[in-house]
Amino acid sequence: MESTELKESKKNKNKKEKKEYKKIKKSIESKSKSKKKKKSKKDKKKDKKNNKERKTKSELKDPNEEMFLNKKIKLLEEQLKDKTNNLNNNNLNNSLNYINNFDISLKKPFHTLNYHKYWVLCLSILNDGRLISGSADRSIIIYNKTTYKPDLIINEHKGFVLCIIQLSSGILATCSNDETIKLFNIKGNNYNIIQTLNDHTGWIYKMIEIKNKYLVSCSDDKYIIFYLKDNLEYKKDYQISANTSCYCIFQIKENEICYSEYINYKDKICFFDLNERKIKSSISNISNSGYNPFVMISNDLLLILGNNKISIININYYELIREIEVSNSGWIYGACVLNKNILFIGDEKGIIKKLKIEEDNLILISKIEKAHNNWIYTLLNIGNGHFASGSADKLIKIW
Predict the structure, then answer these.
(1) Closest listed residue to residue 167, CA positions, set 154, 178, 180, 181
(2) In this structure, are residues 323 and 316 in contact, taking their beta carbons and an 8 Å threshold?
(3) If we measure between CA atoms, which residue out of 334, 324, 337 comes closest to residue 374?
(4) CATH top-level class for 94-398?
């Protein structure tokens, strides 16, 4: 039996334990409440943020506000575009941009002419609209406008026929590596030789006519000769001397021509004043371009074709604007402008590329991978949206 004192002490102890338990319970509850309060404050903050976001979103739904922001975004995009364009324009070594928009009409030629026995080196159009070609087989062929079969074959040169032009008088002028210029009178499907000019002592590469008055030729004998028309004949009037072989001449203004000097894979483009008969200006160190033709793409811009590149020159300021890389092309020999905005080029790999002219830049639109099986030496705009290509594979193709 337990004593009364012992029972009392146990009761007291139980009371104390109960009190302590209650205290601990209260403290735990109070802490949990405080946590709940803190959480609710956070939630309130979150709610406020969410409300603000909802407000801004709802405000953005206002059509005027949305329109204003869209305009601002467009303006910023245009400014960014202008900046990138300016950066590109200031860079001389630009790669040719490509637009993947293949022109199906270029896949196959309309006509393929296979009448030459060796390389086709030059093409031209007669005043009556007929196509004419010159070849390394020494022959000149005039083709029928409709059938593209030969109307006339001329075999008067003893070497490669390098250039053909018909003068304003109707006389046909041809030049060759036989060091002669020959002048022909063409009547329908017949011809006769009017004159042979023997003043050069080297290959004669190019000829141009100036003011219906002068026939001008350039040669690797380092001379550019000006022949003056006297009735139906031409007589040597004067000549200018280049520092090296001269492969190309081109009229850029009424009283101004340009020509190339080529040595050690570097080129010098000289601008010659016809009135004062002296060099007006020049541009040096245009690499790997001297053999190739010049092409005007506007009143101000001249293209010089080269090895894996095209150089663009401003003829008013006589400065090189940019050199555009045309990778995997090799030498680009042939070129023609189809209209104000389209340029075709042909390269040593037999590829024809169609380029869009945009101010002082070129953009690749499409290409024909196997246009020819060898070097493309010449391209010519023959009118009505067509052009012709001549190649070392002996073929002429009409596109």
Answers:
(1) 181
(2) no
(3) 334
(4) mainly beta
> What is the model's pLDDT at position 198?
97
Please state the φ and ψ torsions of residue 358, each to the nearest 5 degrees: -125, 100
Q: How far apart are CA 75 and CA 224, in angstroms?
A: 54
Cβ-based neighbours of 267, under 8 Å, separated by 6 or more: 260, 261, 284, 285, 286, 287, 288, 289, 290, 304
Q: Using CA atoms, how far apart are residues 171 and 378, in angstroms rounded to an integer?
A: 22
What is the spatial distance between Cα 181 and Cα 162, in angstroms, rounded to a whole number?
10
Report how far residue 259's alpha carbon sits from residue 373's, in angstroms, rounded to the nearest whole number: 31
Residue 165: both structure tokens together: 């032009």
Per the structure block, which two tokens stand in for 121? 């080196």
**pLDDT 10s digits, 46-95:** 555 555 444 444 443 445 555 555 655 555 555 555 444 444 444 444 55
Residue length, the chain?
399
Instruction: Write out the DSSP string of 257-283.
Output: EEEEEEETTEEEEEEEETTTTEEEEEE
Tokens representing residue 103 in the block: 């022109």
Give the pTM.
0.74
Give residue limits of the domains in the chain: 94-398
Q: Provide the greatest CA pair distance for the chain.
A: 161
Q: Give the tokens for residue 195.
A: 């004159």
Reading the block at residue 243, the tokens are 């520092």
pLDDT digits (tens, 9 = 90+) for 379-393: 999 998 899 999 999
d(CA 393, CA 114): 9
Q: Which residues contact 126 (CB under 8 A, 6 or more apart)?
A: 132, 142, 166, 172, 186
The full DSSP string for 41-78 is: HHHHHHHHHHHHHHHHHHHHTSHHHHHHHHHHHHHHHH
Instruction: For residue range 96-152, list pLDDT tens digits in order.
Output: 554 444 444 556 898 999 999 999 999 999 999 999 999 999 999 999 999 999 999
Q: Which residue has the higher pLDDT, 2 or 333?
A: 333
Q: Taking a C-beta distance cutoff of 8 angstroms, is the pair 390, 377 a contact?
A: yes
